[in-house]
Each structure stands twice: as structure tokens, then as C-alpha cells.
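Limitations

Structures in this collection are predictions, not experimental determinations, and the ligand pose is part of the prediction. Treat each record accordingly. The example that follows, with flavin-adenine dinucleotide as the small molecule, is included so readers can see exactly what is and is not provided: the inputs are given verbatim, and the output is the predicted complex.
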Amino acid sequence: MPVASDDTPAAAVGPPPPAPALAADAQRALRAVAGEAGLQEHAPIDVDGVSLAFTVEPPDADAVGPVLRVLAEHGLPALVRGGGSRLGLGNPPIGARLLLSTRALSGITELDVADGVLCARAGTPLRTLHDALEDSVWELPLDPPASHATLGGVLATAAVGPRHGGFGRPRDIVLGLDVTLGDGLRARCGGRVVKNVTGYDLAKLHIGGFGAFGVLLSAWLRLRPRPACVRVLSASLGDGPERWERGLAAARLPSARAAALIDPALAAALEPSRPASAGWLLLMELAGDEAAVARDARLLGTACEAAAAPRPGTRPSDGLVGLVASEASPGALGRLRALQGETFGPVGLRFRLAVLPDRLGAVSERLERAAAELLVFPASGVVFARVSLDLDADLSAVDRAWLAAREAARAGGGFAVLEAAPPWAKRARNVFGEAPATAPLLRTLKHRFDPAGILNPHRLP
Amino acid sequence: MTAPAGLLAALREIVGSERCLSRREELLPWECDGLTLHGSLPSAVVLPRDTHEVARIVRACRRFDTPFVPRGAGTGLSGGAIALDGGVVIECAKLDRILAIDGANRLAVVQPGVVNAALSQAVRPHGLFYAPDPSSQMACTIGGNVAENAGGPHTLKYGTTTNHVLALELVLPDGERLRLGSATGWSPGVDLVGVVVGSEGTVGIVTEVTVRLTPLPEATETLLVLFADVVSACRAVGAVITSGLVPAAMEIVDRRTIDAVEASVYAAGLPRDAGAVLLVELDGPAEALPPQIERIRALCAVEGARVQRARDDAERERFWRARKGAFGAMGRLAPDLYVHDAVVPRSRLPEVLARVGEICDRHRLRLSNVFHAGDGNLHPNISFDRRDADELARVVAAGREILEACVAVGGVISGEHGIGTEKRDFMGLVFSADDLEAQHRLRAAFDPDGVCNPGKILPTPRFCVEANPKARGYDHVPL
Ligand SMILES: Cc1cc2nc3c(=O)[nH]c(=O)nc-3n(C[C@H](O)[C@H](O)[C@H](O)COP(=O)(O)OP(=O)(O)OC[C@H]3O[C@@H](n4cnc5c(N)ncnc54)[C@H](O)[C@@H]3O)c2cc1C
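Predicted complex:
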């Protein structure tokens, strides 16, 4: 029985294709560079219908280049695996023959408390990084949903969690990278300082590059000061059209670190005691110093405009009138994070849309017509839409949902990406949408960084 | 080097003869940028008005095998906007329209020639501003800012240009137009916008920029903190940062700079007995600021500093005038000024400043420092007279030693001014040959034939930049 990754719904139509074997000479060559234990055969792991029964695990960063050269020589494309939590992101890795695990590349190599920067190897679980900073004045501004994600995986997929409003995105916190490119060339970019224009900003190619250009070895990260005060609040926004304006005004409060609007059905999963009739739920995390958090909490609860007396044009309380927020139940933010990363079964699709914040109303209306459940981050215009399919659904049902998501995204001035789907539904579709105008440039880049095409084949548009 | 006659005819056909310059005396203002030590005369200068003209100009240059260089206001400080090898300068200053302001979504769509400060001014009625604020903001353009990934004093809280560019239109080196990114600020796939920002005009010509706008802070407080010396000021900056406070800006001005400023039109009434001045700006909700001011007072008191708080906007502007006018004021110290730019881990500032002082003393050079202390971004400024060949040689020698000293503590050789021609040959201080090969691959994917701003960023033996004995000061930069 193939082991499914978190994001890959188990139910696939038809039996999985058999995992391809590796030729004996390729196995020998890989063991020669990765060590005897560095090549493992295991029960097939299914990633979007691609079945993989071997994992090569370079013992250290220096071994990654030789491993890639062997793979190129033997024409063996590999799917790079961090924690394995989000292997289903991107297009199906058609043609991949084995996994390349970064597990051995683990650990923090430097934590500079005076400057608030940290360097860690790519295979380090995020949990390890958060734990290392537990008693520090700094925190790691990464909170993607997957619990056992590794640093490399999060950076390669540019994954964000509910706190991306306050944390920024992976691209904003990476100061430098150490990478082995597809042909084995090891190249550093950036550095360990917080401001840097020394040469091309190559890190941007790798962050969100889905591992198509190189294997991340380690990264320098900029930490954030840990806030003195954190409060998680929730409020009911009802079902009326004003919920969008209110939600956006709340999400734009200066101390809002996370702010999500959750549709009534999903809200019931988040706050079990809440009646569905309460309509949409606003869940907010405020973080900062006491005075800033207290001010915003007051605006959320009572919308006491006079007290804030902001300058004209900067009224943070516009749109908040009438809102009544209260402390959310314990663990609500964690449940929100889990919800964001969840697919649900037995057969479901998850789309991620990015749209302009003032068009969220129009976007959600279209998505709701397609029976999608919605989780919305209004300040950044990010919408997660989940669509359940019937057990006997066929491709036309997938196409209808895809079309609705794309139309909604277009109405919102943005785009939609298919984040999770059963393998049969993903095949023959570009999960990033129509072939973008950038496709030829991306192909050229891919060719220059990975001439043999052995890294994460077919993942990119 | 002169442009092929056929090329000039083709360029004139595209933009008309008033917007195509080719006579030697017409070209002189384009011989260098803000770094007047490096110069090279272009073979022609063209001033397109729209993207279509830019694309046609690029294709014409390709037909005649002539390299080209995009240029904004020419305030760059690393020789990035000069044309080597008889290239054509494509100046984008006339692409200067703000195409759309979308207050609800906090974004604007602008052409690359829009001046940085003009953008902030235009969006102010919406309660917004454009956050990256280089000290040259009255003159420099958004296109130049994108190309250099420009920063400024408020980078500490708001980030550099790359954090504020949502989408771009680019004319590629083959003349094709390409849109990158999306107004939402997210990319469906690879972050090509992030790759183009900071590429110093070597991957194409930016013809449209969608920028993120930031709400004007509800309240702002500006503190002038007076220290006995630069080292104690740096220590205080470190204490503030590790305390968890995130000021909008933390800038240090040293004693020699204070003297120059106070003797100039930028005089701000800075006390002449202070060894260093730290300018701290805080912004945010009004009620959040007073406790922050108290914390900063306490942290600075440990270093024996005195804190003055700007009482009103007029006083705040006066404080800032002293900081932003520092480069101009330094013109009084000597005929020429070399503005260095390097970054070190912030906690290493005290020792690096001492080392930089020692290097300049050894070379008998006049050094002053005014810098973005919160980011560890140094600007050692050396005043000199280029007519003195011996002094010029010492300036160049000291420059290299300063960069080496920064790299030795984990720093880099540019924080905001870019590499251009100035530091191209120092890239090896920071990067290995393999690191540089990876950067070359990126560039070559956009520009396989090396026609777009060649001779910049990456060390290549082919292009020779000449020290430019004629150009002088910032005369042509309307600051
Ligand atoms: C007094 C003074 C103070 C300064 N202070 C700061 C500061 O605080 N922070 C800071 O970051 N910089 C500062 N600078 C440096 C300079 O102003 C910035 O680098 C600025 O971004 C350059 O903009 P520009 O329009 O003058 O560009 P230019 O100098 O004309 O060009 C700079 C680079 O951008 C490229 N370029 C220009 N337009 C385009 C385009 N449309 N498409 C593609 N490439 C293009 C050019 O090829 C060149 O490589 C300062 C300069 C001076 C003179």
C-alpha cells in the first residue's frame, strides 16, 4: 500500500503504477558517493501518482554535488524531500525516479542573538528552530501549516501560515542561501547581514522555486523580536456584504499578526461551540507592545473612534464600527493553521487564490456558487478554497471547480493555483493556471541551473 | 566610440531627433553617474516616452550589434548607469507618468521615470506613502530604485525596494515585453520580480512598476540623541534592537559630519560638542509611542547620552535635514567626496568603525561617517581632491581596505548603492568563482549575448573603466 503524504488524498482511481527499479550500476554509483546507508529502498511512496521506492540521502552538504552528478550521469530525475509534508505541491513530478532526502542536513549552525540572525541547514525541522528560540528575545517568523516541515521545504515552496500578515513571507526573511545547483555546482548567494545588494538576488529564484533549480543546503534567516504581548480575539461578522470591509479593516490594524475570515461551515470546525447561524468568523492575533495591542483590541471590541483620534486618511477604525470581539478559545490559531493545510476527504480539491483585497466580496461570491468552503486572509488577499468532490466524481467535476476558481481569481485581479487534488485530477493540468508568458524564460533558467533536468521534474509551470 | 550611422538613423526614426543625442558635447552629461570617478562616453543617448519606443530602441540596438544601458536620473553611486564600449544610453526619465493609484488596495502603477519623492507626494491624499526613501529621493527614479534595490533611513522598519514591488513590466534584451508578478504581490510560480529587483539594469529595461503603498503612520516621534562618541552611539543602537523595539529609523552622524552640516545651508542647530548624533524615529499608534520613548531614553542613558525630542513637525524636519543634507554639506570639506557603502553585522559596528578610522588615518585621508546604524549599513565618506594624484591613489587603496575590513567580520560590499563598475572587481572578496558562475547563469538566461548594460556587477576582464578626471561633484544631479 503506498504511503500518502499529508497533502495527497489517499483515494486514487485505479492501482498506483509500479515503482520503477534503479539499475544496479546506478545504485552502486550512488552508494559510492552517499555511503552504504545513503541509498535506501522502501515501500513505494506515492506523490501525485508517481511511485517512488528509493531514497538517496546525502550524509552532508558536500555529498549533494556528487550525488547530483551521479543522477545526471545515469539520467535519474529526483524529487527532493524535506519533511515530506507538502510533497503534493506543484505539478506532478512526472519522470522522477527516486527521492533525494535532506534529512541528514540538519541542525542550527549559528544563532547570533546580538544581531537576531540564525543559520540552519535545510533539513532542520521548523520545530527544532522554534524550540531553539523558545527563551530568546527573537522568534522565527515562519508558521506554515505542516507540523513536520523542514526549513528547506518551507523555503522551496514559499509556504506561509496564518501569521504571514505580521511575519512577512519567506522571501522577506531569507538573508542568504547555500545551494547545490542541478549540475552539482555549489553556490552561495546573499549573506548574513540584514541589508545587501552585493550581486544578483539569486535567493529569490530558489525561494518558491519548488526545488527546480537547486537543492537548498542551508539558509541565513532574519529573526523578529518576540512581541511583549499577544492576544487572540474572535468576532462574528454575520453574512452581510459589510463583512468584507470590516474584515479588511480589522486585518489592517497595525498590530494584527494574523487575521482570517472563515466561512460558517469551517468556523464550526474551528470553534465547535459556535452556532453556524453566527455567520462568518473573524479570528485575529494581535501582537506587539502592550499599548499597541490594547489600542487595537479596543478598536476591535468597541470601535471607540474618538479615543484613537487618528489623522485624516489613516483611520484604522473605519469599518470596525459595531464589531464586538472577545478572546478566542484556546488553541484557535493552531486549529486555523491546521485547517489551512488540510485537504479533506475522501476526494477534495484545495485552491489558493491571490486577489486584490477590495474585490474579496466578488471573489467569494463566485467561489461560494461553486460550493467552495473558504478561508480568507483579507489583508494579503489570499483565499484558500476547498471543494469536495463526490466519490464517483470525474474529470469534468474537477474542471468545473478549476474554472470557477480561475474565474473568481480573474474577477479579483489575481490568479488561482491548485494546491491539492487527487493524482488523477492533477494530471494533464497545469496547477499554476494557464501556461504563463514567463514559461520560456523559466525553461531557460531551468536549463541553465539544471541542464540535465534531474531536479523535481515538471513541477514548475 | 561612435554609433553606427544606420543605428542613429533608426533611433531618430523611433524618437525623433530632439530625443536622440549623439554629438560629443551633447553626450557629456551622460559620461558618468553620481560616482564621478568612473566615466565613459556613450555613443548616443535616447529618451523614449513609452514602452513601445523602448522595445523598438532595443531591437534597433540589437540589429546594429550595439550594447545599451537603461538609465534613470543618474544619481547612482556605483557607475551602474554609464555606457561602456560605446553603448547607447536609454534614459527612462521621460517615462514619468503615474498610471494609476489604487488607494483601496494600497498600490500604484507607475512608469520608471517617476521621481521617488513625487510618488509619495501624489499618494499622500490617500493617506499613503511609498516607503523606500533613499536620501536622493528628490531626484532618483523608481526605475533606478528597482534596479538598485534602493534603501533609505526607514528601511529598518519598512524594508528595501524589493519589499515594495508587486509587479513589473520589462523589455527583455531581445526587445520582447514581459509582465512579471501580479498586483496582488504574489506570484503563481517563481518569484521573477524578486530576481529582477536589484539586477542593476542588466536583465532588461523596466518600463512599468506596480508598487505597494504604505499607510501614513498615525503618529511619529523623532529623537535626537547626543553621544560622546560614535562607539557609544553604536552600542546604544544594539541595545535598542535587542530590546525588541523596532524603530522606523536609526541613523548615526559623526562629529566631522556634524561640523560640515552646521557650517552649511543644512544647519540644524546640532550641538557642536557632541561626538556623535543618533537620530531615532518611532512611528505607530499615538498611545504606543510614549512608552517606547521612555525605553529608548533609558537605554541611551546607560551610554551617558542626552535625548532631545522633536517638539513639532518643523523641528522633525530640521533634524532630518541635517541627516539627508549630509552628503551635500560634505562638499564643503573638499572638492570631491567618495561615498562608500558596505554592511556589517550590526553588533560589529564599533570595531569596524575603529578599523575604518585607522585605515583612513594611515592613508592620511579625511573621513566622516553618516550611516544607517540600525541595519549595520556603513557609509564611510572620504573627502579629497582628485587633482592630487597621490591623494586619489590613497583614496582608492583605502577603499579596498575598508571593504576587506567589512567582509572580514561577515559583512558585504554593498548595502544599497550596488556593484556597478565600482565594485565589480571586488566581488571576489565576497563570492567564490562558483558563486559568481551561478550569478552569471541567471544573467545569461535573460541576456545570453551580454548586450544589456554589459561590464557591470560581475567581474569580466573585457571592459575597462577609466578614472574620469573631468567630471566633478554632483553638478548635474538636481538634488
Ligand atoms: C546624495 C545621494 C544620496 C543617496 N542616497 C541613497 C540612499 O539613501 N539609499 C540608496 O539606496 N541609494 C542612495 N543613493 C544612490 C542612488 O540615488 C540610488 O541608487 C537610486 O536608486 C538611483 O536611481 P536613478 O534614477 O538615479 O538611477 P540611475 O543612477 O540612472 O541608474 C542606476 C541603475 O539603475 C539602472 N536603471 C535605471 N533605470 C532603469 C530602468 N528603467 N530599467 C532597468 N534598469 C534601470 C541603471 O542601468 C543603473 O544600473 C544616493 C545618491 C546620491 C547622489
